[in-house]
Amino acid sequence: MTSPRPRPAQIERAKESVLTEAEASGCQPPSTADRLIVDSWLRSKSALGMPERITEVPVVAEEELDDSLLDMLHTPMSSFARSLEGSGVGLLLADTRGRILDRWAGTSYGLEHLDRVGTVRGAVLSEDVVGTNGVGTVIATRRLTQVVTNEHYSEFYSTAVCTGAPLFHPISGELLGAVTLSCDAKPQTELLQALIRTLTANLEQHMMTMEQPGTRQMLDEFLRLTRRGDVPVIGFGAQGLLVQNTSAGQFRPLDFQLIRQAAAEADSRGRASGVTSIGKVDLRIERFPGSGNVLVRVTPAAPQRTGATDVHQLRHAPPLVGKSNEWRDTLTRVSRARTTSRPLLIAGEPGSGKTSLALGWAYQASRRVPDTAVMDAGTIPLIGMRRWFERLEQHVEEGQRVVIRGVGSEQRTVDGLRSFIETAPQPSRITLTASVGEGREGQALALSLGAHLVIAPPLRDHPHDIAALWTRFAEQELPGAALSPSPEALRALQRYNWPGNLRELHTLVADVLSRRRSGTVSVEELPEGIRSPRTTGLIERAEEEAIRRALLEAGGNRVRAAEILGVSRATVYRKMKSYRLTM
Questions:
Q1: Residues 295, 252: one domain?
Q2: Where is this region: Disordered (predicted)?
Q3: Cβ distance 136 to 154 under 8 Å?
Q4: Which residue would you say has higher pLDDT here, 436 or 96?
Q5: DSSP letter assigned to residue 441
């Protein structure tokens, strides 16, 4: 039987003793587990100084992360995360340097917790960067560790409970990383230790299975294909799904069954096709004799040439939802802009419905209309500018209307688009979207492109459309769903600030539908941040809006936003946490 953990006041006194190097008589932690925490405090102090010097969690660039471990464990981690539904617990996978490779949560509550403590993909949680925590301390000690509230070295983790365990290679014993459960402080969190032991045992068993000769061969090929491109790659064993890369996360559980069945019926060349929730796909299958393992590479189905690209036709394009004055005025401005000879630029906050406005119907990535092509400017660094513009030119030559998403401030891209628009036969058939503010940046971009500018309103500016949007999103997630918010819940939804706009509302609806499929949603079923919105004064609202606009202008870069505002980066980080800004 384990000894009870010290109370927060006892922890604080012991921590103060360690940090001030004073005599700790009467304050020494009473158990071996607490001795581990004290040793971690000493290492943290040596590396970082006092806790108040830690003001933020650094995040490394995407290209610095090695996803080999994530690719191997994504399937069992995702499966385990589904068991956390409704618990408010988040799940983390980190490499040996304490860098977060991915995070999971059963519901939005768990993700909200991870957002509050700055734990995102690429966040660096090593002990010498943020002090004692349930990732870095696990890696430093190579032991299962639970860090409760103010046992954390940094103050911004003081309301969290993190329970982590090291992950070792089942054959070589090499340390591969850490898996951690993180949540807000709550009763019976000691049970998380048993849960994390079970998870690590299952993960190591999964790796052992992957080490079998036939499976090892499949895994090597899986890793090679995953590194070479960003298409979904899925590995099946005799018992079912074994491994998938992050690109395969777009598929639903039923899709995997359909893909496996289609793969079993592949022709002699290892080719097959099928229909999934994201549309028609082509499959390339490789079998590994003697093991029953199959590796499947999934690509969108080859387009059928009928004068237009027809990948997965949208038979009944859902119309745009919204009857508020703000939304109808925006639709009117878009319609008027289309009567001119210039292209149209729709700017606004992330998730505000810019692409849907550009298309004239509710945008879904898996659906296409025959005479419209949607291109993403964000893919230019992946495929190269020349190839990207060749695709754009092809769509225009085929007579398609083109929507270009995610036009940013990268000057080469803007210059290339301006040159293309100047020579396009019908510039009015080109619509662009950009996540910028309503001020100078959007106007400057529109002037540079020679485009007519329309601003997509944020959801907080047309809250009376939320009821209709809720119904639409519920129908998209589960056709025939009969789920609606109660009057009290609807009022709470309309009061909320919606920093993630329509995308955040859609995520909330999907989360509620994962727990129930019909009936009336009470206000108690909504996340705490929506049930109890902050009451802010005029100055606070102005400050929040200034930070939001600076972040938009800076493309989400906090350092640049701090320069725009003339404040420190730490201040921007603190205010973002205070106002729950996540961009």
A1: yes
A2: 1-30
A3: no
A4: 96
A5: H
